[in-house]
Amino acid sequence: MPILGMVLVLEDQATSTRKGVEARLGNAADLELGDPADHRWPVVLESPGKQEAEARIDGLRRVPGIADVDVVYADFEDLLERPATADAREET
Questions:
Q1: What's the pTM?
Q2: Nearest to residue 7, comparing CAs of 25, 29, 47, 34?
Q3: In what order do the strands lie in the sheet with 3-10?
Q4: In whole angstroms, what is the distance from residue 61 CA to residue 30 CA?
Q5: How big, in percent rounded to 5, are the helix, strand and coil portions of the chain?
Q6: Which domains does the chain show, CATH number per domain?
Q7: pLDDT by residue (tens digit) across 63-91?
């Protein structure tokens, strides 16, 4: 499951913009919203796969009030295939 740390860049720092974005995203089960600072808002996205994460980011960029989405951290480790270790090869 990819986990991404992102910063939503809001169009401005108006409270009404923040409240509008929060109303649109507040119930999203895949997002954890941090505390906004000025026109930047940290969020964490948990996605079932890489394509779903990319689609979700594209969707966030289309939300009214969001000017851009900066991905600052991405963990895809659980999607990588691990080579067999020496211990695992000996057991087979």
A1: 0.79
A2: 34
A3: 31-33, 40-46, 3-10, 66-75
A4: 16
A5: 35, 30, 35
A6: 3-91 (3.30.70.260)
A7: 999 999 999 999 877 655 656 665 555 55
